[in-house]
Amino acid sequence: MPRKKANHLIESVADMDNLRLAFWKARKGKSYARPVERYRADLEHNLVQLRAQILSGEVLVGNYRFFKIFDPKERQICAPAFSEQVLHHALGTRLE
Questions:
Q1: How many distinct structural domains can be found in the chain?
Q2: pTM > 0.85: yes or no
Q3: Which of 4, 22, 64, 79 has CB atoms 3.0–4.6 Å from 90's, for a disulfide?
């Protein structure tokens, strides 16, 4: 089976329409969370900034939020910042 080439994959991920879709997917179920509201308040600027980071290859990652859950047993959760969640969705939509 021939392998597909990933022609222009970075540009496709960084496409503004893809980033807007990724934002709407990432916010699903958490529209009123403070980080989501802050990101949405300056949405175009945040998406342009994320696009520039993707195209330059210097995406800022690692700003995790740590918290514990206790169901059914105690676990520590490491959740990415909302901007990283947008990036994850932008990648996912192009890799499907």
A1: 1
A2: no
A3: 22
